[in-house]
């Protein structure tokens, strides 16, 4: 069982940076990979990417590749999403979600636990 809480969202100007955090609780935290999703107003949920439990493997959506970076610190039970060169189209509610390690990062239907989300707004 994993509980996830996102933080770090807010209002930022285009071209700026923001770092989101996802704090996890539960003794099974290290048995999970971690994915990031976002949902913008009027749009369907989008898969941003994911990072394996070890931090050695990552996947990034084309829309964020080169601008966003995932990392995790298992000792702190925390994963991070570093967002650079933000654009207005990045505006969305961002969610983290846990994936059992036996599945591939892009096996979206197997993400089991979800955080409550944190709002990111990028002004032009």
How does this structure look, described?
Helix content is 0%, strand content 51%. Strands 2, 4, 5, 6, 9, 10 and 11 form a seven-stranded mixed β-sheet that branches. Strands 1-3-8-7 form a four-stranded antiparallel β-sheet, with no helix packed on it. With 124 residues, it is mostly beta strands. The chain is built from no helices and eleven strands. It is globular and about 40 Å long.
Task: Summarize the entry for a quick read.
This protein is 0% helix and 51% strand.
Give the low-pLDDT segments. none
Radius of gyration: 13 Å
Beta-strand percentage range: over 45%
Residue share in helix: under 10%
Overall structural class, as computed from helix and strand content, comes to mainly beta
Query: Which sheet architecture does the biggest sheet show?
Result: 7 strands, mixed
Question: Mean pLDDT, rounded to whole units?
Answer: 94
Global geometry: globular
Number of DSSP E strands: 11
Question: Can you write the helix and strand succession as a string?
Answer: EEEEEEEEEEE
Quaternary class: single chain
Number of helices: 0
Distance between the termini: 40 Å
């Amino acid at each position: 069982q994993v509980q996830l809480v996102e933080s770090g969202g807010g209002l930022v100007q285009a071209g700026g940076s923001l770092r989101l955090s996802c704090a996890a609780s539960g003794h099974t935290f290290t048995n999970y990979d971690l994915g990031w999703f976002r949902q913008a107003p009027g749009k369907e949920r989008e898969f941003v990417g994911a990072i394996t439990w070890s931090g050695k493997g990552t996947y990034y959506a084309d829309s964020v590749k080169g601008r966003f970076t995932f990392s995790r610190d298992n000792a702190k039970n925390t994963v991070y999403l570093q967002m650079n060169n933000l654009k207005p189209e990045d505006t969305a509610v961002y969610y983290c979600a846990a994936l059992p390690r036996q599945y591939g990062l892009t096996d979206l239907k197997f993400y089991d636990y979800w955080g409550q989300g944190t709002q990111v707004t990028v002004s032009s």
